[in-house]
Amino acid sequence: MSTAEQFDFYSVNAYLAAEELATTRSEFANGLIRSMAGATNRHNSVAVNVQGMLWSQLKGHSCRPFNSDTKIRVRRGESTWFYYPDASIVCESNRATETFQDRPVVVIEVLSQSTRAIDLDEKLTAYLSIESLQVYVLLEQDKPYAIAMRRTPAGFLREVYEGLAAVVAMPSVGCTLSLDEVYSGVEFTPTTVQEPTAT
Asked: pLDDT for 119-174, tens place per residue?
């Protein structure tokens, strides 16, 4: 006889209180707490390149970039999620004393083997429900390739950018992501993999 897996459910307040004391980060999925695994050097190189580009382009502007230490809160009806994207841009910020943002204009995730299913499904659905969001960008780490889910009057449209010459425009914040700069210092080889597959 199999034993059903059991989960502990937490309130939003309990999660936020635990995160303030935690030495590692966890995301919150409507009552479930999900620990975050460490990222590879390749993943972090792409994320740091993106953060540097956003900081330099937004310096002195009212919209500000945030790194992966800032949570995004998503509320849909009675349900709540907290995610740590690799980068985000916020034009209407929460209070400086809070640890999360509610109104991102741009959210950027670097895909990895361990998170891509969540990034392309659960997080995609959650992020696109945020009224302020203009574009959700997903970046591969083993090749110069980006997917942008861009808000239009007809809803979100999927755009694909491939190759180092490609540039993802983000006119709502006056920024661009040149894939040549996004992948600066990242070596691509025929045997490159995103990260070891869990066994």
From this structure: 898 999 999 999 999 999 999 998 999 999 999 999 999 999 999 999 999 999 99
Domain that holds residue 130: 39-71+82-182
Q: Running DSSP on this structure, what letter comes out for residue 62? A: S
Give the chain's domain count: 1
Closest CA to 35 of 114, 110, 140, 128: 114
Q: Specify if 66 maps to a domain.
A: yes
> CATH number, domain at 102?
3.90.1570.10
Separation CA 179–CA 172 (nearest Å): 19
Distance CA 197, CA 199 (A): 6
**Residue 9 placed within a domain:** no
Residues whose CB falls within 8 Å of the CB of residue 187, separated by 6 or more in sequence, listed in order: none
State residue 55 phi and psi, 5-degree precision: -60, -45
What DSSP string describes 21-61?
A: H-SS-EEEETTEEEEPPPPPHHHHHHHHHHHHHHHHHHTTS
Question: Is 76 part of a structural domain of the chain?
Answer: no
